[in-house]
Amino acid sequence: MMFSLENITNSIHEWLYANLNATLALIIEFAIIGVLVIGLFAALGLVLIMMERKVSSWMQLRLGPNRVGPGGMFQTVADTIKLIVKEGMTPDRVDKLLFNLAPFIVMVIAMVVMAPIMFAKGFQIWDINIGVLFVLAVSSISVIGILIAGWASNNKYSLLGAMRSGAQIVSYELSAGLSVLAIVVLSGGLRMSTIIDAQQTGWWLFKGHIPAIIAFVIFIIAVTAETNRAPFDLAEAESELTGGFHTEYSGMKFALFFLAEYVNIFVVCAIGATLFLGGWMPFHIGNWQAFNHVMDYIPSSIWFFGKTFLLIFIIMWFRWTFPRLRIDQLLQLEWKYLLPISMFNLLLATVVAIAGWHF
Amino acid sequence: MGAGSLIALMIAAIAFSGIALLISKFVLKATTNKQKGEPYECGIPTTGPSRIQFNVGYYLFALVFLIFDVELIFMFPWAVVVKEVGWLALFEIVIFLFILFTGLLYAHKKGALTWK
Question: Is residue A190 part of a domain?
């Protein structure tokens, strides 16, 4: 393979350990990881916000941002500069410590969750043996950041928004966890590399047929709710609650919440792509060698990001297709439909896995 | 990379957020006045305390969630070994999910899953 991130990282690793002592090499590697992830954050913020606005404008038959740069490409950069020069206000009666702590919590969670994601073949920060469980466990801490932000703001809108957000995130975590479990049962491991290797001959969405497709649909619905996106965005329903939990946040503090929100969308879509669409695995059709070889020539990182952005596009599509739910409808959907369905789907997946009825 | 990478990521996140906040603090010149520090309520003066009572329903759902989330954690070790254990694993999880589902039905019967 001409273009392989695995070879680049391996040669950097070997060069560092050959020329420097172990401690210094480790520190330099950690610094490289930190810089790369911050770079990924900045790039994702710019690309996803731009994509959101362009997809929205495309679906509403309008132009969208088109003034700054070619085709409006630098609109997000201009917005970032605007947010930097705006004052990050702290209102008088807020709990100052918690108010300023909340954006940090949300950002730290969004960044730590990046660790087990496999961006390309052999290109991963840490292949944790409990990979999927780690992502589920750590990403659920971000609800604490949201509750802190809502409570500390000393604002009625913020408090109500944070409560709604909390109820919604914890509820949909159950069906997200159960649909992830269905894939864990099929592939027999929590480690990201194990799950991807199990999809060598085909992606679980196709290989696992009925249980995998049901799990995929439930997973997409659940992560849309967990990331507080429309049609489940009643935590920040503009017409009722102004801005939800971040009503009182402005300037750079607001920008951090906004960035973490978009990075969370990327993370859940990356997990979805890894579990159901085979991560970096190229698309293969049975024994059609010629086709499979052509597919193998596309670098694995392009496969991974292509699948992830496909899922992000689907989630953005939802926003302009479905009307917003009420809180009682939202909780009813989860507790009376999705949770029982995903429980039975788990049994179905178990039968399929034990009997070996998948391809 | 080991567990140290998590600490590296945490430091990176704190540094990123901290530097962004510091830059914006140095760039602008903040002003204060009495109206500016008021809680935002779309322009009208706030009435009463801002930390209001909220619906008890949120608390009920949090309690039900807690039970189900703990059950979910027990299923992860099971899910890893399903293929090795075979049909016995299916038998066990049927019993486990039956008890869990009975709990869900009980909560439904008690009206805990209806938003009031």
Answer: yes
The structure's pTM equals 0.91
Do B83 and A353 make contact, defined as CB atoms within 8 angstroms? Answer: yes
Partners of A327 on chain B (C-beta within 8 Å) are 115
**Lowest-pLDDT choice from A112-121, A181-190, B45-54:** B45-54
Q: Answer yes or no: is B16 within a domain.
A: yes
CA dihedral angle for residue B37, residue B43, residue B49, residue B52, rounded to 10 degrees: -120
Residue A329, domain extent: 87-355
8 Å CB contact of A33 and B8: yes
Q: Is residue A152 part of a domain?
A: yes
Average pLDDT, chain A: 85
Q: Measured between CB atoms, which of B31, B50, B94 is closest to A156? A: B50
pLDDT for residue B1:
67
Which residues on B lie below 8 Å from A155 (Cβ)? Answer: 39-41, 50
CB-CB: which of A111, A164, A173 is closest to B12? A111
**Structural domain tally of chain A?**
1
Residue A3 has a pLDDT of 62
d(CA A292, CA A315): 29
User: Which two tokens mark B10?
Assistant: 């945490």
Parent domain of B79: 4-109
- Report pLDDT digits (tens) over B82-103: 888 888 888 888 999 898 889 8
Is A133 close to B13, i.e. CB distance below 8 A?
Answer: no
Taken as a whole, chain B contains a residue count of 116
Give a yes or no: residue B115 inside a domain. Answer: no
Q: Is A47 a domain residue? A: no
The reply to whether A87 touches chain B by the CB within 8 Å rule is yes
Residue A162 contacts B, CB cutoff 8 Å: no
Give me the number of domains chain B comprises: 1
Angle at A21 between CA A34 and CA B6, to 5 degrees: 25
Q: Domain containing B18 — which CATH number? A: 1.20.58.1610
ipTM of the complex as predicted: 0.88
**In this complex, which of B18, B36, B54 lies closest to A163 when CB atoms are compared?**
B54
d(CA A329, CA B107): 17
d(CA A201, CA A192): 16
Pick from B2, B30, B114: CB nearest A87? B30
Residue A123 phi, psi dihedral angles, 5° rounding:
-120, 95
Q: Look at A185 and B113 and tell me if their CB atoms are within 8 Å.
A: no
Measured between alpha carbons, how far is B64 from B68 in angstroms, rounded to an integer? 6
Q: Do A156 and B58 touch (CB under 8 A)?
A: no
pLDDT in tens, A270-300: 999 998 888 888 887 777 788 888 877 888 8
Residue appearing with tokens 């390309």: A120
pLDDT in tens, A72-127: 888 888 888 888 888 777 777 888 888 888 888 888 998 888 888 888 887 888 88
User: Residue A51 domain-assigned?
Assistant: no
Partners of residue A25 in chain B, C-beta under 8 Å: none
